Structure formats: structure tokens, C-alpha cells
Amino acid sequence: MQKITILIHCEDQKAIIASVTNYISSIDGNIIYLDQHVDADENVFFMRLECEFSAKNWNIEAIKTDFQAKLAAPFNMSWEMYTQNEKPRMALFVSKYDHCLYDILGRYSAGELPLEIPLIISNHEDLKAVAERFSIPFHYVPFTKDIKTEGEQKQLDLLKEYNIDFIVLARYMQIITPNLIAQYKNQIINIHHSFLPAFPGAKPYHSAFKRGVKIIGATSHYVTEGLDEGPIIEQDIARVSHSHSIEDFIMKGRDLERMVLARAIKLHAERKTMVYDNKTVVFL
Amino acid sequence: MQKITILIHCEDQKAIIASVTNYISSIDGNIIYLDQHVDADENVFFMRLECEFSAKNWNIEAIKTDFQAKLAAPFNMSWEMYTQNEKPRMALFVSKYDHCLYDILGRYSAGELPLEIPLIISNHEDLKAVAERFSIPFHYVPFTKDIKTEGEQKQLDLLKEYNIDFIVLARYMQIITPNLIAQYKNQIINIHHSFLPAFPGAKPYHSAFKRGVKIIGATSHYVTEGLDEGPIIEQDIARVSHSHSIEDFIMKGRDLERMVLARAIKLHAERKTMVYDNKTVVFL
Amino acid sequence: MQKITILIHCEDQKAIIASVTNYISSIDGNIIYLDQHVDADENVFFMRLECEFSAKNWNIEAIKTDFQAKLAAPFNMSWEMYTQNEKPRMALFVSKYDHCLYDILGRYSAGELPLEIPLIISNHEDLKAVAERFSIPFHYVPFTKDIKTEGEQKQLDLLKEYNIDFIVLARYMQIITPNLIAQYKNQIINIHHSFLPAFPGAKPYHSAFKRGVKIIGATSHYVTEGLDEGPIIEQDIARVSHSHSIEDFIMKGRDLERMVLARAIKLHAERKTMVYDNKTVVFL
Amino acid sequence: MQKITILIHCEDQKAIIASVTNYISSIDGNIIYLDQHVDADENVFFMRLECEFSAKNWNIEAIKTDFQAKLAAPFNMSWEMYTQNEKPRMALFVSKYDHCLYDILGRYSAGELPLEIPLIISNHEDLKAVAERFSIPFHYVPFTKDIKTEGEQKQLDLLKEYNIDFIVLARYMQIITPNLIAQYKNQIINIHHSFLPAFPGAKPYHSAFKRGVKIIGATSHYVTEGLDEGPIIEQDIARVSHSHSIEDFIMKGRDLERMVLARAIKLHAERKTMVYDNKTVVFL
């Protein structure tokens, strides 16, 4: 059996679901997952399907051509179609914090993530040894205000060379250039160590401590030009009390960061996220 | 606009979704919610739809007849169809504990529950005053081993008289007779004060305390003949520690019981639950 | 047996715990609960004790005098001492939302709250019937910008007449005057329907929806002059997704508001909260 | 400054706290943490203290002798005293599952765990490469019913050779012999992949799926002779629904197992757990 995943969004119209499911039936596909969402305010329709086909007579390119002509064109759809075997290629950007890096590489090595990690880029050399432990190419790309253009070019070259589909900032402590954001639109995932929109920017644990909150959080989101303002993919929280110091907040936060980032990576790699109007539709 | 909700289950077959959504399109309905589930082990298909129709030319009985002929018969479906205005009628069974009763009546009075509560039945007279506060008929139906048959008959008479659709046991401390269970199959909701299947039966908080668990729970489920073994609708938990006494467990548990039972009642009243093979499909 | 609860805070110094526990021992008291906290940054010591005494020879006023002379004076302590029987008297301020009101009155009637509710004040007449159901005096006190002074005076008169210890704003939709805040310092509890400091002010569910958060929250806090900026007592959260409308946020939020406010009320009434530097110490 | 941690338990008696805190004051120690618990049913007192001493004149052995004579003997205390620098030495037992192993070694490498890991023991050779990545000695110790005695002896020899303080079973799929349990009483931590006492024994995710639970869990506990019956250290849960397959349960469960086991290891290594009557006191 061959499996494909289809993501669709378009203006909401009558008979979209009927038309798509009819089509799948007509080419002898079996729908094993269907979820859909209508944004009533914006009148936008979103859909995610997984279908199975028997392997013989299977021609993904023919299906794509057909789909475009029979469905995408008449309904004016934006759409993507993936076969089971296409694993997205992910670049990790890191600086000095190693906890998210260890977590991601551990999960990757344990076979939990449906993706390839051909490349780690860092603006520091500290984590080279970690990359080597896991036998993943590590590239040191210095990046400061002074050499921003040079740094960005080197990043882009490496991303191209390694044929990267999406980027994960695993506590990467430098800003991403607008040019890189534009080239990887909705393909750069960041982990911010607060419950956004509370405490954007630097030192959120310190701010949370000062405010006396009883719950701290972490947020993974797609990177946009506005700092910590991109579409949110996943959030989670942990309880804290007066008895916890800032160091306790940071330590508890590490677990949140790890978990929330890992979930966002998995959702993205499994093509379960769609972005619209600075928000995400996440089909679980 | 008129809204209907359709619940379907049948053997999984090709083209069910396409056929149903085509049909809705063909009668000018607009699908505003569709969720579906396939139990792969049992090869059973489940579906829940909400559709809107413009009010003129609307004839629910004609749609039902049509649906039976064109879809239910060929696919051998079990199905239910509800219009927006049909609020289910719920009977509350209580004994002496008042916290769930206050919570349900508070929510009901605040307009949060899409149902009617025409009747409260109790095997004790203690909570009569609570029912009166909320102006709901209260019937004292003694029920012990000795007068089981008599008690059951009185219950059945009242349920019939008040035209009751489903029953909620809000910490009702008597067993329900097999006959009543049979007449209200998958229509009797109980709240058990543990995280089932841990600690079924009597005094679960005491057992949880003795075992030294770090988390306690509550479970709402449909009542079957096996004690605390029916299909689970909803569960939730709360953290406890060595510093909590049994009384603390009970007090924390009250919040769980209230919340879990209220959620189950709402899900059931909104026709979001389906039962199969002693499990529930809950379409959120 | 007689039970007392003691709350202490003072500059952190050597031998405070030893001195206090020695003193309790010296008067034949038995410590059944002791928790303490040191704010290392501010060098402040906090302590909460519960002690039991055999009923004969018991003289709370003598103990208070003794405590002041032997401990409070030398250590320069701020302190409070309560006997078991002193239930704080709470006024409820409401407007039109009834869900928190029903929840609090239900819990109160079910005997879960160690306090008295002699008074409900509202700037609308809508909830009078609810107060009557629970047989609690309801006072309609209009309050707008134009009659602020008059409204405040009437509130203060009622609070005095009913001998009120603390105030709970159960979705009371008017601001509290600085004068009233000053007279009830750290004795006015508000429930805000967001995860503070995210979304302060009006319409937080709408803002949360627009931002596309995956978790919503509620926060109970002591009222200070800064809007939604007072010391946080308790927070909790619920998961949301793209499939939830603003109405769903509001409905889920009602459960959070109820729960978080009820917990804060209980903590306050049990003398488990202490305020310092716009933060709370909550001894669980 | 030197820091020590003291754990005490004994029959509950008057003036224990006063005596201990007086003693610490008398030797110029500063209490920076004190928590205590009384098991009222069993009349047992538990206490955990952290104290700081200025480094000069510091003599831990003298303090221990003193403490025994002045406090432990008169109050008949069981007690332990640790200096800050004594990191416990932990052996990891694994079989074929690698997710907990990666997680623990990642945390260890990131400096999050106050312990040493000098030794990994496995009844299979599969995970040798993982141990090598992290440069930790890996010993293959076959263990089956037939060579149980031989296997146990080899385990004991290694534990002695590496001077091991406590053992963590990171999804080790063999039983631990009564002899080893006796030699490491309350020093062997297991992770069980269910919410105990629900679903003890083999294949808990399969049982949970079959029962139709809405929440799954994981439990870390000290190993005793009764299977999955030892004192519980930590538990956590995750929500599941009808849409999740057994494979989904297992994948979600991996995150729970990782997190719950990591927390239990940290609590144990920080000397925050005490065992009594098959339950734990966990001082957070």
C-alpha cells in the first residue's frame, strides 16, 4: 500500500468535501484520515487527508496533475501532496544551550522523528562535540551585527547545499535575517521560553519571577519578522510557587522547552500544521 | 437557518464520506462540522456531521426518510438525526452528597447546559431543599435491597411520566437495576471518584491514600451491569502529595467530580458521544 | 483541643524558627503544621504555623500578649494569630455574570468554604434572584463614573454595617475606588479571565483568539490600583485549538474562572496567603 | 560556605523541631530550607533541612557525632546527613528500549543531574553503541531464568566494583532478584508505563487501549518484591482519545516515561525522598 497526505486550503465553498472525497474514491483510494476546519470569520476552508492506494497502478505524478485540474483549479485551492517516503530535511540552529539539542538528537536517534537532520549550524563552537557524538555535520557560522551579511550568506549556502526543507532554532540566540525568513516562510520554528504573548523578548524567566506568576510556560512558533510574534504551534506550562528561585524557573523551563519544541517539530514534519492569518491550524 | 446533527456508525466501506457529503450537498445543506473515525481493529466507521439548511423548504421528516433510503439502507448504517431544538430531558439521581448537584443546577441555571432537568429522584430526603431552591420537582424514592422491585418500578414510572431521555447519577449511592440499565442503554451517566480502572467500588479515596499515589482522579462513564466497568466518557486528575490527608483527597476530589461529570453531561447532551465495544468515541 | 494559626513575616535573622518553636513548646502547644520561606533577594522571612493546645488553661489573649513581648518585639515581626473559630466575613461584588456566583454559593452551601457570606453587592439588579435562592442579603448599589463617590460611600457603609473582612469580585465589571482598595489592602480578590500578564484589561478571550494561542487561562489576584497588576494568588489554564471559536474560549474560560476564583477564596479564608512586594507566598 | 542536608524520621514527639533548630543555631548554622511532615495515622515525624555553615571551623564528622548524641539518641531518630559534594553514584539498567536512556544521558551531559553515572548494565547488547556515544562503561550481563543466579552475582560484583549507591531501571525488562532488592533497599527506581495501580504488569498500553481510558500515565517507584507495588515517587498523565491507536499510546507514553523517570531520579539524587510504610514523603 502507498500512503499520501494532502493539505488544502481555499475560500469556503459548497461541496468541497464531497468533491475531494468523490475524487479519492474515483481513483480507488481509501481515506484513512480526514479532518477539516472552516474559519468562519475569514471564510477559509482547511482540510487534511490521508489516503491509501494499492501499490500497482500507482502514479503520484499523474494524481497530482489530475488533482490540479479537477479540484485545485475549479476551487482555486492552495494545496500540498506528500508521499509517505518524503521525509523533510531539517537544519538545527544552536548557540550554547545544549538541552534542546540533546533532546532532539536523542529522539532522532531513537527513531521518533519522521525527518532527516543533515546539518547543525551554530554561531559558537561549544556544541560541536555534541554534534560529533551523534555523527551529524556541524558548521560553525559566526554571526554578529558586524558580519550579518556574511553570516547570512554562509547560512543560505549551507541550507542550499544540504537541501534543507525547514529550520529549527533550538535556543539559537541570534536573530534570523528578514531575507532568510522570506526564503523559509513558515518553515522556521523557534522555541520561546515563556507563555506568549506574556514575556516576549529577553529574560522571560526573570520577568515571570518578578511578576510572581504561579505558572510558567514555553511556546513554539513559526518565525516572522516581529520578535516572538509568529504563528503559535504549541504551548505548555508548569506550576511554580513562591518557593522557587529564578534558577528553579529556568530548570523547570528546560523541560517545557524540550517538550514543546519536540512536539512542534513532530507536528511540522508530519505535515499536520497549516498557517493562515498569523495563526496555525494543527490537525492532530 | 436550521441546523441538524447526524451521528452514523456502520461497517467501514469505500465511499461512505463521499456518499454522505454528496447527499447533503444535493439537498442544499452546508456542512459546518464533520468528524469521522475508523476503528481499524473492528472495521467500524463513525461519523458526526452538523449541517445547516435555509429555513424555507425545510422538512426534517422528508430528510430522514430520504436518508434512510439513500444512505442508511445501502450502507447498513445505525444513525441518529437531531434538530437544534430538541433538548434532551435529563433526570438527576442523588443521595446525600450535594456538591455535584449544586454544580449541575448552577450550570443549568446559568444557561450552560443544552438540556432540560424536569426531575430529581433521590433515595433520601436530605437534598429536597436544594431542589426547591432551584424549583425542580424532587421525588423521594426509597431504595434498598428489600424494596428493590418496588423502588425500580417507581423510578421507571417517574422516568416515563416526565418523558426522560437520559439519567445522571450525581453521586447516587445505590446500584441501578439491570432492568433500568437495559431500558436506558448508554443513557445513564455515572461519576466515579477514582481514575478508573484504578480503585473501582467503594472508598476509592481511602484506597488511593493507602497506596500512596501522587495523582488522584475522577471518571464519568455510561452505566453497565459491571460495577464501574462501563464505557468511559471523560476523566481528569489532580496532584496530591504526602502532605494531604484523606480529607484533603476527598475535598480535591469533589472538584474533579464536579468538573468531570459536568463535561460528560455536556458532551452527551450535545450528541458528541457514541458507544461501541464498551468504549466511547467522543467528537470534540 | 484548640487550634491556632500564626502568620509571621520579618527581616530574616538567625534563630527565628528555633525561637518560635521553642516558645510554642514552652506553652505546651503541639505544632501540627509548619512551613517557612525566605525571600533571599529581599532578605525577608515568612512563616505559617498551626498549633494545637489542650482546651483547659487556654487563653488566647494571654498568648497574644506573650507572643508580642517575647517574639514579635525582639524580632520586629509583622504577625497575625487566628483561632479556629474565627471565620472571615466575605462580601461578594457581582454585576451580571452569574457563573462564578452560582459556583461560590453552591460551594458555600455545600459547606466547603470556611467563611461567612453575609452580603452581596451589585451594580445591577439582575442577580438578585440568585441571591434570594440562597437567602443572602442582596444590595443594589449603582455605580457609574457620575455617581462614583456616592456609590463608594454606599459600598463602604454596607461593608462596615455587615462587618466585612474581605471582598471577592466575582466578575464585577466596575473598577474599585482607590479609597476602597486602601481600606481593604490585600483583602480584595479579583478574577481576571486571562493568563496574566498576558491580555490584561477588557476582552481577553477575544485577544487570545486573535493571537492564536493554544492555551487560555484565568488569574485570581489581590486588587491594587494598577489594573490587573496586583499580587497573583492562583492561575490555571485550559487547552484550546483552531477548532474553537471565541464562544468556545468564553465557555471553557468560565470553568477556569470558577475554579481559580474558588481556590483563591479558600486559600485566603484559610489564612494561607501572605503578600510581599506585589507577590504572594501561598502556603499549601 | 558549606551546605549540608539532613533527613530525619522518628516517632512524633513534642519539641523535635525546636530541638533540631536550636541545635543548628547553637553551632552557628543558618537554616535555608526546612520542611516537615507528620503522618498522623502512624504517628511518625519526617523532616528535611538544608543548612549553611561558614567554611572555617567546619567539621562534618564532629557535627555527625554531636547530632547523634544530642538529638538522634534522645529522640530515637533515623537520620542521614549529606554534604553538598557527595554526589550519589547511579547504575543504569537497560534492555532494548533507548528513549529513557537517551533522555537520562542527555540530561546528565547537560549538567542537570547531581549524580555520577559510572556504569550501564544490560541484558542485551543493543544499546552498547549509545553508551559509547556518551563514553560510559557498558557491561553486558545476560540474565534469564536459567542463569539467574549467575546473572545476579555478576550484577552485584559490578555494583560493588563501581561503588554504586542507587540503581535506575530505564525500561529494563527483567525482574530484579530479591537478593539485589534487599541489598539496595529503597535504592532501586523503576519506571512503569501506566498510571499505577491501574494496569500493573505487562503490556499496560494495550490494556489501557482496550479499556478505552481517556488518560494514560506513567509511574516511577522504588522496587520491592511485589511487582509494580513499591512506594510511588512520581506520576504523570497525558490525554488520549478514540482517535489514538495503541501505537499512539506508546509514543505518547514514551514522553511520560522519560519525564517521570527523570523527575524521580532528580528527587532521589537530591535526597528529597523518604520511604515509610510503602509510601514516599517527597519534600519539594
UniProtKB/TrEMBL annotation, chains A, B, C, D:
Its EC number is 3.5.1.10. InterPro entries: ACT-like_dom_sf, Formyl-FH4-Hydrolase_C, Formyl_transf_N, Formyl_transf_N_sf, PurU, PurU_ACT. The active site is at residue 228. It catalyses: (6R)-10-formyltetrahydrofolate + H2O = (6S)-5,6,7,8-tetrahydrofolate + formate + H(+). PANTHER family: FORMYLTETRAHYDROFOLATE DEFORMYLASE, FORMYLTETRAHYDROFOLATE DEFORMYLASE 2, MITOCHONDRIAL. One of its GO terms (molecular function) is formyltetrahydrofolate deformylase activity. It is an enzyme of class 3 (hydrolase). It comes from Flavobacterium algoritolerans. HAMAP family: PurU. The keyword Hydrolase applies. This is Formyltetrahydrofolate deformylase. Residues 89-265 form the Formyl transferase N-terminal domain. Belongs to the PurU family. Keywords: Hydrolase, One-carbon metabolism, Purine biosynthesis. Catalyzes the hydrolysis of 10-formyltetrahydrofolate (formyl-FH4) to formate and tetrahydrofolate (FH4). The keyword Hydrolase applies. Pfam families: Formyl_trans_N. Pathway: Purine metabolism; IMP biosynthesis via de novo pathway; formate from 10-formyl-5,6,7,8-tetrahydrofolate: step 1/1. It comes from the Bacteria.
